[in-house]
Design goal:
Elements (H helix, E strand, L loop, with lengths): L2 H21 L13 H4 L12 H12 L21 H13 L10 H17 L7 E5 L2 H16 L4 H4 L7 E6 L4 H9 L7 E4 L1 E2 L4 E2 L1 H13 L3 E8 L11 H10 L3 E5 L10 H7 L8 E4 L1 H4 L7 E5 L3 H7 L29 H35 L5 E7 L2 E5 L4 H14 L5 E5 L2 E7 L7 H18 L1
Parallel strand pairs: 2-3, 2-6, 6-7, 7-8
Antiparallel strand pairs: 1-9, 4-5, 8-9, 10-11, 11-13, 12-13
Bound molecules: pyridoxal-5'-phosphate.
C-alpha cells in the first residue's frame, strides 16, 4: 500500500467511524456470537499474495463486526465503561501515524513533556497537592504491580531485586476483600504470594475495611515475625464500588511505616467533581501512590492509566535499570520508562491533552454528574419492581440488585437480558450471593438510554420468570 492509498482509506475509515456511532444504538450491545464462529470464517493459513484493502474491509464488516461487543454503545451498563471520545480517537490517529517510542526524553521530548504537564493538569483537576508527580501506565494492573514491587523493595531495604526473595522472610500486603483481582495478581507476580495478601472484610455502607481490624492484623503479623510491606486501599471496588475510608487507614500505615497505594481505577475520574471528592476522598493526599484510569470514565480511550506518586524516588529505585544503550547525555530530564515495567511506551498523553482541551473539565464533570444522577433514578425505578431487591445502594454510578429467586435465577435473567441485546449487564457476587450489577458511564448515554434499562429488565423478567 502506498501513502496515497493510505489517505484514501483513512478518509473512508473516519467516515465509517462516524456512521458506526450514528447507528450504534440499533445494534445489540453484547456480541450475539457463538464460540468459534469468527475463527471458522478466517482462512487457516496466511495469504502468499497481497490482497486489496477493499476486500479486507469487506471481510472486516461481515466477519469481524458481528463478533464485536459494543463498548461505546449508549446502553452499555456492564463491567465499567471504556470510553473513547472523538477527540481521543483523533489524537490516537496522530499518535499511530508518528508512531514514536516514548521511553526516554530524548526518544521524543514532546511526548515526555506533554505527559508531565498532563499529569500535572490532572493533579490539579483532582485537587492533589503540588509535589505529586507520576507516570502514565498502560493499565491500572501495571501501576498496582509497580506499587507492590515498590512496597517489596522498600520493605527489604531495596535488596529484593538483587538478592531474590528466598532469604527475606514473609512479606505481607494488606487490603480489603473488595479489591480488584489485579491486587492479587500483583502479589503473585511480585513474589509475595497469595497467602501473604491479607484481606480485611469490608463493612458499613461503603464496604470499606475497618482500620482497627487492619491494625490488629498488622500487629499479629509482626508478632509472628512477618514483615508488613504495604497497604493497598480501594476507591470504587469492581464488585459494588467499595470505598475505603482513607484517613484511618493512612494513620495505621504511618504507625507501622508502610507504603500505601490507592486503586481508584474507575472512581478516580469522578473525583474531578468536588462533591464526590469531599464525600469519598478525604485525606487522599496521604497516599504514596494513586492510580486512576482516564481510559474508563473520562473519555480517553484505552490505554491510559495515570499513576500519581508523592515521591517518585522509591518506585524509580525499584524499577530503574540503565544499560549502556539507554544512557543519555547529562541533562536532567525525565525518562518515564524508569518508572514502569515495560521499556517501550506509546505517546498516551496526547489523547489526554485533546480530550481535556475539547471538553474542558466542566464538560467532563457534567457527564459524570449525569451518570451518577441517572444511576440513582434507575435504582429507584428497579426498587419499585415487585420482588426485586436493591442489594447494594449506588456508590457513584454503580449499584446492584437481585430479581426474585435463587442465584440461578439471577444468571438466567442476566443471560436473557444480554440475548435480548438492547442493554448489557453483568453479574457479580456480594457476601456469597449472586448479584446483577448496573453501572452508568458511557460517554454519550442519555437519560432515556438509562431509563430504557428499567423497561428492558421488566419485560425480560416477565418472559423468564
Ligand atoms: C478496571 C479496574 C482495574 C484494572 O484496570 P486495568 O487498567 O484494566 O488494569 C483495577 N482496579 C479497579 C478498581 C478497576 O475498576
Amino acid at each position: 500500500m502506498n501513502w496515497d492509498d493510505y489517505a484514501h482509506w483513512g478518509k473512508h475509515i473516519a467516515q465509517w467511524g462516524a456512521d458506526y456511532h450514528a447507528t450504534l444504538g440499533d445494534r445489540p450491545v453484547r456480541a450475539q456470537s457463538r464460540p468459534g464462529k469468527v475463527a471458522a470464517q478466517l482462512p487457516a493459513a496466511p495469504p502468499d499474495q497481497g490482497e486489496d484493502m477493499a476486500d479486507i474491509l469487506t471481510d472486516f464488516e461481515t466477519i469481524v463486526m458481528p463478533g464485536m461487543t459494543h463498548w461505546q454503545h449508549p446502553r452499555f451498563f456492564a463491567y465499567f465503561p471504556a470510553n473513547a471520545a472523538p477527540p481521543s480517537m483523533l489524537a490516537e490517529m496522530l499518535v499511530n501515524t508518528v508512531a514514536a517510542q516514548c521511553m526516554l526524553w530524548q526518544t521524543s521530548p514532546a511526548a515526555t513533556e506533554v505527559e508531565g504537564v498532563m499529569i500535572d493538569w490532572l493533579r490539579q483537576a483532582l485537587d492533589l497537592p503540588k509535589g505529586f508527580t507520576g507516570v502514565i501506565q498502560d493499565s491500572a494492573s501495571s501501576a498496582t504491580l509497580s506499587a507492590v514491587l515498590t512496597m517489596r523493595e522498600r520493605a527489604t531495604g531495596f535488596t529484593g531485586n538483587k538478592d531474590g526473595l528466598s532469604s527475606k522472610g514473609q512479606l505481607r500486603v494488606y487490603c480489603s476483600d473488595q479489591v480488584h483481582a489485579s491486587i492479587d495478581r500483583a502479589c503473585w507476580v511480585a513474589g509475595i504470594g497469595q497467602v501473604n495478601l491479607v484481606k480485611i472484610p469490608g463493612t458499613g455502607p461503603l464496604h470499606g475495611m475497618d482500620a482497627e481490624a487492619l491494625d490488629a492484623a498488622i500487629r499479629s503479623d509482626i508478632a509472628e515475625g512477618h514483615i508488613p510491606a504495604g497497604i493497598v486501599a480501594i476507591s470504587g471496588g469492581t464488585g459494588v464500588g467499595a470505598c475505603d475510608t482513607l484517613g484511618p487507614i493512612l494513620r495505621v500505615a504511618k504507625a507501622h511505616d508502610l507504603y500505601t497505594h490507592l486503586d481508584a481505577a474507575w472512581a478516580g475520574s469522578a473525583m474531578i467533581c468536588p462533591e464526590f471528592r469531599a464525600a469519598l476522598w478525604a485525606d487522599v493526599e496521604g497516599f504514596d501512590s494513586i492510580v486512576f484510569n482516564p481510559h474508563k470514565w473520562l473519555g480517553v480511550q484505552f490505554d491510559c492509566s495515570v499513576q500519581f506518586l508523592r515521591d517518585a524516588t522509591a518506585q524509580q529505585n525499584t524499577l530503574k535499570i540503565e544499560p549502556e544503550y539507554l544512557k543519555t547525555s547529562g541533562e536532567t530530564v525525565t525518562n518515564y520508562s524508569e518508572l514502569t515495567i515495560p521499556l517501550g511506551r506509546r505517546f498516551r498523553a496526547l489523547k489526554l491533552w485533546f480530550v481535556l482541551r475539547s471538553y474542558g473539565l466542566d464538560g467532563l464533570r457534567i457527564r459524570i454528574r449525569n451518570h451518577v444522577a441517572w444511576a440513582g433514578e434507575l435504582c429507584e425505578a428497579l426498587r419499585g419492581l415487585e420482588g426485586f431487591e436493591i442489594v447494594t445502594e449506588p456508590i457513584l454510578s454503580l449499584f446492584s440488585f437481585r430479581c426474585p429467586g435463587d442465584d440461578a435465577a439471577q444468571q438466567r435473567l442476566v443471560d436473557a437480558i444480554n440475548d435480548d441485546g438492547r442493554i448489557y449487564l453483568t453479574q457479580g457476587a456480594f457476601r456469597g450471593r449472586k448479584i446483577i450489577r448496573v453501572q452508568v458511564g458511557q460517554f454519550d448515554t442519555t437519560r432515556d438510554d438509562v431509563m430504557m434499562a428499567h423497561q428492558v429488565i421488566r419485560e425480560v423478567w416477565e418472559q423468564v420468570r
